[in-house]
Amino acid sequence: MTTQTLLYIILAGIVALLLALFQYRYKQKGNSKKNALFAFLRFLSIFGILLLLINPKFEQIEVYTEKPNLVLAIDNTTSVKHLNQDRNVLNTLDVIQNNETLNDKFNIIPFTIGESLNSLDSLRFNENQTNINKAFRELSQVYKNTISPTVLITDGNQTYGNDYEFSAKKYNQPIYPIILGDTTQFTDLKLQQLNVNKYAYLKNRFPVEAILVYRGNTKVNTRFTVSSGGKTVYSEPISFTEESNSKVVNFTLPANRVGVQGYNATLLPIDTEKNKINNSKNFAVEVIDQKTKVALVSALLHPDLGAIKKSIESNEQREVVFVKPNELISKLNDFQLVVLYQPNNSFKQLYEVLNTENKNRIVISGTKTEWNFLNVEAKSYTQDVTSQTEDYQAILNSNYGSFIVEDLDFESFPPLASSFGAPSFKVPTEVLLYKKVNSFETEEPLLVTFETNSRREAILFGENIWKWRAQSYVNTQSFNNFDNFIGKLVQYLASNKRKNRLNIDYESFYQGNTNVIVKAQFFNKNYEFDAKENLNITVKDKKTEKTTTVPFILKNSNYEVDLSNLPASEYTFTVKAASEAISKSGQFQIIEYNVEQQFLNANVTKLQQLATNSNGNSYFIAEYNSIIDDLLKDERYLPIQKSSKNIVPLIDWKYLLFLIVLTLAIEWFLRKYNGLI
């Protein structure tokens, strides 16, 4: 409280006293006890009101004790059950969570680890992927500035993500792995890895690479086979010794018919093997009849060109060819789509041919684009011509309906550079991305698609899209999301198929360890996204004839259904709208494979190294009681006494208002009682 405020309070007390004395001593002649009581009550009322007007502020100091956190990260994947450790995990978790001494010292916070990190609800050991790396990255954000030793209950076998031994170094918390399994070594043959392209071309041969490993100390002879439809299509004898314990087998298989072709690769097991599941892997290849060729036309060099090529060619069904503007004219019919990068006057002849042939195209403009030229040749749109440039960020239009698109967190992407000016269109358009300048969202398009004269076209008003691809990798540790976005744009523009009111997005086949997600969009008769429609998918197993119907769930601007609980098989499906006779059918295949069942032992070495690097300690599951004693004795995990200081204004103190009302009420009652009112 400042000296000035203190002086105001003293002055308020003097004023309140003078007013009370004036009322009951000066005006009411006499010095009775009643007048003294009335004066006191009036003094309290006036003084309280003046205090509220002054509203002094007081410091409120709260002292509290903060306990350290004890984070429990528990492996919830099928490998725990496969190693027969599920009962041990439940017992260990029960003992730690119900230990009174531990609860007195720590805030115990349990999580489950699978494909992602989740708060513990229940342990079913049914997740198909282990990503310990992602768990540590997310925990490091939550417990960055706290004392939070972490108990990691796992077999240490990660199936997805970067090496968690390195990501844990950024966690900055002691880690105590409880190892599920033992160090007993068994003789084992394993099909370690199978490398094959997702697509192959009809009447060609596609390459397959198999990495085979052996763990044991005697010589063994076996055979590696690949079969399809009950027939063996490849076979090779394999020998292993203790010294020569790995083989790489390379071979090719024919692609004789269009569609998804399923195969089974098997390293024949020996009698003494304990785990025979990891001897086999199923894989599939989609055989296609042709490849989409895309011409990338530019008269200048720019990093965008390489990023666009990589994004488009991430799908092996597509090929990108760099060409100069005049080189493309003679071979235009070889391409299904043309990408025009920052057109200038050297594109003049090419534009004349493109307009004559009515060819689908993507135009990417930027700071080097000659808009005086493009405004004449484009026909469908123009832009104000200025000498200024501007940076634009992207905002996704959630109502875009030409194809299914997901938000890649565009607002986190760096801005694109372009010529300053507002575009105008002479044809109906659909805006996919809007411009955002600084923090202001505009209604001007950044990326727009349109159809005119049976031709599809898109224009992006900005260069430096390579930064978007890089930022997408920073956000997700993968280029896949951005490449899929570009791939869908290319797929839409490379086709002239009639626009449908019901669009479906799905894969032709899914690996058994991935999520089976089918997405859909439904539009009303005006081709506006309809968020009120009820969509259902009916899935039929080709082998068992079993039929399952599942409703779609609305998610942002898409409908989505998760079919991950379906067993491995071949399926046909039909998506139907409830309100109208509109449906769409397709088929997909789920490849049987459980990566979590490929492990025979816990990864003891990595978990022990993880504990050493983080100043923790490792334990086998049979020794879990020891961790409780170590945590209780460790002086690094002592409660910390903290204080918080808050500045509280008097006006927030409700008791003062109550006191004012009370004194006024008592004064009124006593005066009424004594006949003074």
Verbal overview:
The protein has 677 residues and is of the alpha/beta class. Helix content is 27%, strand content 35%. It has 16 helices and 36 strands. The strands form eight sheets. A nine-stranded mixed sheet has the order 16-15-17-18-25-24-23-20-21. A six-stranded mixed sheet has the order 4-3-2-5-6-35, sandwiched between helices. Helix 1 packs antiparallel against helix 2 (33-54), helix 2 packs antiparallel against helix 16 and helix 8 packs across helix 12 (465-476). The radius of gyration is 36 Å and the shape is extended. It starts with a helix and ends with a helix. The mean pLDDT is 89.
Question: What would you report as the Rg, rounded to the nearest angstrom?
Answer: 36 Å
Return residue spans where pLDDT drops below 50 for at least 5 consecutive residues.
none
Portion in strands: 35-45%
In total, how many beta strands?
36
Mean pLDDT: 89
Outline: extended
Percentage of residues assigned to helices: 25-40%
- Output the strand order for the largest sheet: 16-15-17-18-25-24-23-20-21
Tally of contiguous helical segments: 16
Would you tell me the structural class of the helices and strands? alpha/beta
N-end to C-end Cα span: 41 Å
Largest sheet: 9 strands, mixed
